[in-house]
């Protein structure tokens, strides 16, 4: 965890695992007269620690990070009742991510290749209590709504992590036949031929 600590304006923590990207974002945002980057983090655990330490107005986080995604961090901050707003910046225009982001209390969701001025404006709107969703992401969500149930998503996440049906049944206190039934339903919804293909398809769509 690092970054520079500054004074007034909108205080921001940046969470992004690619060093060049986070340094570029920090430098460009610090050029804005009303935005100060007070810390940076490269994974979910450090992002939570940075928010706890610096109490920023806004956390700007990527989705794909080690030790906890941006959505995991947002959900945990929401659970804690944190006052810090969360703006997700991602390369992925995936429909399921947007739904999960909103469920986690995220109030801003923009694509990483947006101009820095657009990101700064999104930060200001989120800080002021507004909600910002880029047009591309809104369109993706409209076109591909998540049809999985919470239980199906839970099982597919376990499959994606390498668990067998027996492992899943034991962990979730279900019969193996029940696990197979849930996974068969998920496979049908995803048009997948097997459980592994279903988990991969759900992850690519941002549904898990």
From TrEMBL:
Gene3D superfamilies: 3.40.50.2300. Residues 141-206 form the HTH luxR-type domain. It comes from the Bacteria. One of its GO terms (molecular function) is DNA binding. GO terms for biological process: phosphorelay signal transduction system; regulation of DNA-templated transcription. CDD domains: LuxR_C_like, REC_DesR-like. This is Two component transcriptional regulator, LuxR family. The keyword Phosphoprotein applies. InterPro entries: CheY-like_superfamily, Sig_transdc_resp-reg_C-effctor, Sig_transdc_resp-reg_receiver, Tscrpt_reg_LuxR_C, WalR-like. Residues 11-127 form the Response regulatory domain. Keywords: DNA-binding, Phosphoprotein. The modification 4-aspartylphosphate is found at residue 62. Pfam families: GerE, Response_reg. It comes from Saccharomonospora viridis (strain ATCC 15386 / DSM 43017 / JCM 3036 / CCUG 5913 / NBRC 12207 / NCIMB 9602 / P101). SMART domains: HTH_LUXR (SM00421), REC (SM00448).
């Amino acid at each position: 965890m690092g970054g520079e600590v500054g004074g007034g304006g909108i205080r921001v923590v940046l969470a992004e695992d690619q060093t060049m990207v986070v340094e570029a974002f920090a430098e460009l945002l610090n050029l804005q007269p009303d935005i100060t980057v007070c810390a940076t983090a490269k994974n979910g655990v450090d992002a939570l620690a940075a928010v706890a330490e610096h109490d920023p107005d806004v956390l700007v986080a990527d989705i794909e990070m080690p030790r906890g995604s941006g959505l995991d961090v947002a959900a945990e901050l929401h659970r804690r009742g944190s006052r810090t707003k969360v703006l997700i910046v991602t390369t992925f225009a995936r429909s399921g991510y947007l739904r999960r982001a909103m469920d986690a209390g995220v109030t801003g969701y923009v694509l990483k290749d947006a101009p820095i001025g657009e990101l700064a404006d999104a930060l200001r709107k989120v800080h002021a209590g507004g909600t910002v969703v880029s047009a591309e992401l809104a369109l993706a969500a409209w076109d591909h709504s998540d049809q999985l149930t919470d239980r199906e998503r839970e099982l597919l996440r376990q499959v994606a992590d390498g668990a067998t049906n027996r492992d899943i049944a034991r962990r979730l206190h279900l019969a193996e036949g029940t696990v197979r039934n849930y996974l068969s339903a998920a496979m049908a919804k995803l048009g997948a031929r097997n459980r592994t293909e279903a988990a991969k398809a759900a992850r690519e769509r941002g549904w898990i």
